[in-house]
Design goal:
2 copies of one chain form a homodimer.
Chain A (H helix, E strand, L loop, with lengths): L1 E3 H6 L2 H10 L4 E2 L1 E6 L5 E6 L3 E5 L2 E7 L4 H13 L1 E6 L5 H5 L11 H4 L4 E4 L2 E6 L4 E12 L6 E12 L5 E2 L3 E2 L8 E3 L3 E10 L13 H8 L1
Antiparallel strand pairs in A: 2-14, 3-4, 3-7, 5-6, 6-11, 7-10, 8-9, 10-11, 12-13, 14-15
């Protein structure tokens, strides 16, 4: 099946949304927790969280221009400069999904979606207690994306909280099967993970690039 | 387990890389195909592809500052303004993974990693023939990320090629279990997908936000 640019443009809106949101492949499902200056908590599901660097430890996510629910997240981050990122786990997918309904500013998604907030000392934004992987960040940079009015929000990692049950693959890498972390496909399909391969870290590989042709022949 | 910013800073480099690359959750595994002005093809695996919008259809990905392999990708995109994004499928994970080795500019990863190129009429960059989901894009915008020297590369979708075997969930949304698309955790763990939930599109939900408290009570 081949869709050209014109054919994509001509699709009905919902079909185009579904196709375009699904063709990039699996996306992480994360809940972003924030606190407003006046003390209201907010929680919103995002599928655009992306790793940017390890030293300093930076994480970014994309804020769409026209989404009422997600504007609370941006407003709160601008007001209080901090936010949390919390993995969605398979046992609370539905609660996480419905944070994207159109709640009023004073209606906390924690209450309306039956999720519990969790706090650590000297750090104000709410984590999601149910989440096995919780990250606390400080606003670092907001980059406007001229192409379509999105904003790219970048935070520096200040806290990483991992549930005791989580195992590491090699040293430092979280096992995402183990942590029950889910991914999103398109707008509303949720997936759990099956680990199928654990390959050598390329920079530490014992096979040099120029030998790869021989490497495949040895494998046959 | 709680890591603070200082403790993260003090981890050894590899452990910090592994932890920071894995805590954002599952990432899509995609091969980006490009062509240089002088006619060399290049292929590189990326885990930072992100949906930006559907109309116009825009997709972005993050280019790290210090990676020799991936610089070919950027140079080629600057030279010829086009690139392809191709899902990594479970049957060629290893080949895709090793595109991140340090090949010379004139060594095509297609040859060295045993993957086949595929072309369509009037469109120059190479697709990956083995990939069940192929996207052809035109460079739209390059955004420097001041925080750490990364670049955010944005392309507009010009072609979407889907294998005949792929089914849709609802109208337009690709079934990622069906397409054998894989995700990456951390630097080198690969996962396939298990669909666990298909929830109503929030904007079309029949339950208003203000009724969500009752919604959960009905579910118990």
């Amino acid at each position: 099946m081949h869709y050209t640019k014109l054919e994509i443009k001509d699709l009905n809106r919902i079909k185009r949304l579904r196709l375009m949101n699904s063709i990039t492949g699996i996306k992480s499902a994360n809940l972003i927790g924030t606190l407003s200056e006046s003390g209201n908590t907010n929680l919103a599901i995002f599928s655009s969280v992306v790793h940017l660097g390890s030293d300093p430890a930076l994480i970014g996510f994309v804020m769409r221009p026209n989404n009422n629910v997600k504007r609370d997240t941006l407003n709160n981050i601008l007001e209080t400069k901090h936010f949390t990122i919390n993995h969605v786990n398979s046992n609370f997918v539905e609660k996480a999904h419905y944070t994207s309904l159109n709640f009023n500013e004073d209606q906390s998604e924690f209450d309306y979606c039956n999720l519990e907030s969790f706090y650590i000392d000297n750090y104000s934004p709410p984590f999601v207690k149910e989440s096995k992987v919780k990250i606390g960040l400080k606003l670092h940079e907001i980059i406007p994306i001229k192409s379509n009015g999105c904003k790219f929000i970048i935070g520096e990692v200040e806290h990483v909280l991992l549930d005791d049950g989580i195992n590491f693959i090699a040293e430092g890498s979280i096992d995402l099967e183990d942590s029950n972390s889910v991914g999103v496909g398109g707008l509303n399909s949720y997936y759990t993970m099956n680990k199928i391969a654990e390959l050598p870290f390329p920079r530490l590989s014992t096979t040099p690039a120029s030998e790869m042709n021989k490497f495949w022949k040895r494998k046959i």
